[in-house]
Design a protein that fits this description.
Two copies of one chain form a homodimer. The first copy, chain A, has 267 residues and is an alpha/beta fold. Chain A contains eleven helices and five strands, in the order αβαβααβαααβαααβα. The first copy, chain A, has helices at residues 29-53, 70-77, 96-99, 105-108, 130-133, 139-142, 145-158, 172-184, 194-201, 203-217, 232-248, and strands at 57-64, 86-90, 117-121, 161-169, 224-228. The first copy, chain A, has a five-stranded parallel beta sheet, with helices on both faces. In chain A, helix 1 packs parallel to helix 11 (232-248). Chain A is globular, with a radius of gyration of 20 Å. Chain A starts with 28 loop residues before the first helix and ends in a 19-residue tail after the last helix. Chains A and B meet through helix 2, strand 2, helix 8 and helix 9 of A and helix 2, strand 2, helix 8 and helix 9 of B.
Chain lengths: 267, 267
């Protein structure tokens, strides 16, 4: 799965990456789902260890085009993981209090503490994505944000945060199918707004904005993974694998008991 | 399961309630676990509907003696429910900023918003439990808090919050067994502190404090349920049933689409 990590000295081109592929995974969906199940059990154990040790912090950033599968990823990959140790932060339209400050202010408030996993469902990257595509601020403002993001993430990493950033890469055709499926299912209509179709019209602009963001903010301490996401099971398999491997690499240990428990009797 | 709800005009006596019972449930653990699975699937759907409708807020308060099973309840009852719609709030030792304000200030900050479920793992009730038993504040301060809690919860309920409060009722013997099991398992020693045993010595004082709290703050808008919790599966079954029934009683509906979607074509 290492192949999906964006290399430091290489620029990626999204047009050349296939959202449909399943890499060199030997087996189809059924085998993939079994592998995910096993990884999920590992993740549950690693999360408990992370919490017990209380030393590292984990930040997972999820970004995708509309219908890209952020919600599904969170449900599937983190299923059964103790909800007390995993928080999801979603970023809505900024409040006036938030707009009066730098764009990272509201983000900093919700970063993980020791022993915690926080998942950003959308993130500070929207400030160089929709904000750029929709011209919410002038270019001279958003163009400086890439460096600011790198600096901000460095501060977090230097203070014990494992940062993993995933771009769920779906194709334009796949998005069409998913939007159509929502349209065909009346029970999903409440989620549907015509605004989603306006965003779709800007597909190429968004792809460009994503490509730039990924190329400018892939760092050693906060790497991007471009995940082929047309097939949901493969998307979940890639993310689960990266996450489990990264947590294992922390070489965490259960802490020693606070007290000497020799000869303790419970009355 | 209605029998576990504390009636408004009746005082409960914890000593008379059996933590070991399984009520009139027809069937043992195996049948219980199957029923929980079914309730869990219902809960997942109801949570989605709650989120979609965005009208009601749900606050679940969990209180218990040490080892009473709050963590296990959260994992089991809410397994598979979308983590984006369910938040867990834990209350640690208050900060100086929190201590400088009324005891409900930090609690108010984390109440659920529209469409959200928030689970309090411990809560403002600690301010009439450990605070009372340990004399952290004088009686004239804590004794006024029952009314303040009722007033606070009334404000939340009047503003669209469904409040369900559960006391997980274990016996003193069961606590002994659970503490012993932790002591016998070296991998759990990091969780064990001798302070837990000091709290156990105050068992009767805590039972009295719980009984008073439950009797003084069982209201129509924020009822207490005293859940027999020696058997974990039965505890989870009771809580799942109460939760699902309460959510159903809200008679929620999926909202109408924001836009007229007739004849929409996705290009």
């Amino acid at each position: 799965m290492k192949q999906y990590k964006v290399e430091l000295n290489k620029k990626i081109s999204l047009a050349k990456l296939d959202p449909n592929e399943t890499g060199d995974f030997d087996g189809g969906k059924e085998k993939g789902l079994k592998a995910i199940e096993k990884l999920n059990a590992e993740l549950q154990e690693l999360q408990e260890l992370l919490y017990a040790e209380g030393k590292h912090k984990v930040l997972v950033v999820l970004q995708a085009m509309d219908t890209g599968g952020k919600d599904g990823t969170i449900r599937r990959v983190f299923e059964g993981v103790n909800p007390q140790g995993v928080k999801v932060a979603s970023f809505k339209v900024p409040t006036s209090e938030e707009l009066a400050r730098d764009f990272l202010w509201r983000v900093h408030k919700v970063v993980p503490g020791n022993g915690e996993i926080v998942i950003f469902n959308r993130s500070h990257y929207e400030d160089v994505l929709v904000v750029r595509v929709r011209n919410f601020v002038p270019k001279e403002v958003w163009s400086k944000r890439y460096d600011q993001i790198n600096e901000f993430e460095k501060i977090l990493a230097d203070n014990g945060t494992l940062i993993l950033k995933f771009f769920l890469n779906i194709s334009k055709d796949e998005q069409k199918e998913r939007l159509q499926a929502r349209l065909d299912d009346p029970s999903k209509h409440w989620k549907f707004s015509l605004g989603d179709l306006n965003e779709r019209k800007l597909w190429d602009d968004y792809q460009q904005a994503y490509e730039d963001a990924i190329n400018k903010t892939s760092t050693k301490y906060a790497p991007w993974y471009v995940v082929p996401a047309n097939r949901k099971w493969y998307r979940d398999l890639v993310i689960s694998t990266v996450l489990v491997d990264a947590l294992k690499s922390l070489k965490m240990k259960y802490p020693k008991p606070k007290d000497n428990l020799d000869g303790v009797v419970i009355e």
